[in-house]
Design goal:
With about 170 residues, this protein is mostly helical. Helix content is about 45%, strand content about 0%. It contains 6 helices and 2 strands; from the N terminus they run αββααααα. It has a two-stranded antiparallel sheet with strand order 1-2. The mean pLDDT is about 80.
Amino acid sequence: MLFGQSVFQSVLDRLKEEDGDTAEDAAPVLHRMPGFTTGLAFDVMEGVSAPSARPGQAYFDNLDFAPPRETTDAALPPEPAAEPIPEIEPVMPEHLARTALSEIAAELAISPNDAIQSLSDKRRGFAKANHPDRVHPLFRDNATKRMTLANQLIDEAIRRKTRFSKR
């Protein structure tokens, strides 16, 4: 073992000496160009540039799509007639039928002790169940009426609250 070499390196050097192979005798690497430390990658393969080769299409080219078999009508069993599926008529929720101002006021249960934050929470909760975008299109008119009345009641309560708080 020479000074400054690892055991592994000294073993490699000894094996090279025994085989008689030297660096000069080794065949040059053909895929490398002299002066470059790495090989070159070109974007032209077999005369076709990579962008025009459509690499995304290669997946579909490798799939084996079998053409549909031609069969005679006599070989096929008769297809059963498709029965139309009857559409189920949607049922309107009970709360959407209540569109009177007094009924909506009772649902909201607005009191003079409600804070503005609690009124906003009531509005959000009411909208969650009654907003026209969240119900079936057949019931949107009732939902719109209910939301309009609820918003008017809550806006009026907030106006009163802010009016009395300024005094």
